[in-house]
Amino acid sequence: MNTRKHLPLLGAAALAAIALAGCAPSATVGAEPPAPAADPTSLTLALVPSQDQSGLVDTAAPLTEMLTEALGIPVTGVVSKDYQAAVEAMGAGQAQIGFLPSLQLWQASDMYDANVVLQTERNGNITYPAQFMTNNPDKYCEDTPVERDGKLFCNGADALKGPAGLDAIGTIAGSKVALLGPGSPAGYIYPMLALQEAGLDTDTDIEQLPVTANDASVLAVYNGDAEVGFSFWDARDIVKKDVPDVGQKVVVFALSEEIPNDGVAVTNDLSPELQEKISTALLEYSNTPEGAETLTSIYSITKLAPADASSLDVVARAAAKLGLQ
């Protein structure tokens, strides 16, 4: 199947249809329990904008086409306006499948009883750090930057495992910082928590430059709009095709504590059989060359694996410390 489907933007208007379940009449005492609702005749897959939304429009079509063929029912992709909108879409019945960051996986499960069925692997890793990036290594690097895979790191961040270089983040005080919305574990939650634990007041000690996605954070640092930026590791790869020298001009000088990888949740109103078909189709797809290429282009995913929902508790605790729950 080769037809590309455009993925509409999922915003507030799509979320306004949340039903008031409390208005339903009570079941009659002694009556037979209602039969389970039939599975829907179409499904919606919610994606979060970890990169430019037009990029997701172009790259996610093979994924929805595969699911349509594997499940035998149409699957449409939507790009949420932000991370939280994807969770609310699942709670409102506007989406039945969600590719979500770790905090939103936990929220979908905790708030709406969604089932977390898969988690991602990236180059064999099931966790990743948030990275602190700068265009001013003389200020933030306590040693000479070293090159790895064509990109510069300092303060031990070239080990690619967090935490690293966090002693240097106190220097961020007074700087302009590119950061994602509060729903982003790597673009907000973990870096801001690290700043607070380093003694900074994140409301007054930094000048915040809000950005919408990880690639935008990298480009804000690259273009000089911000001196420091937060993102997942290594979001520089997303923009390398457009700015080949990004690895030299944007230096990673610190890594946060490790964060559980993102994954896939499905709503619990789907039958167990359909939930199993969805997770099996995605799992098998990730093990094919075509699937690995598509998932890598969407979210830098190299493989999908069965989920361990308990691993998400650490993200919920971090969000609680920042008052984001």
Automatic annotation (TrEMBL):
The keyword Signal applies. It comes from the Bacteria. Gene3D superfamilies: Periplasmic binding protein-like II. The keyword Signal applies. One of its GO terms (cellular component) is ATP-binding cassette (ABC) transporter complex. Keywords: Signal. Pfam families: Phosphonate-bd (PF12974). One of its GO terms (biological process) is transmembrane transport. Residues 1-21 form the signal peptide. Belongs to the phosphate/phosphite/phosphonate binding protein family. This is Phosphonate transport system substrate-binding protein. It comes from Microterricola gilva.
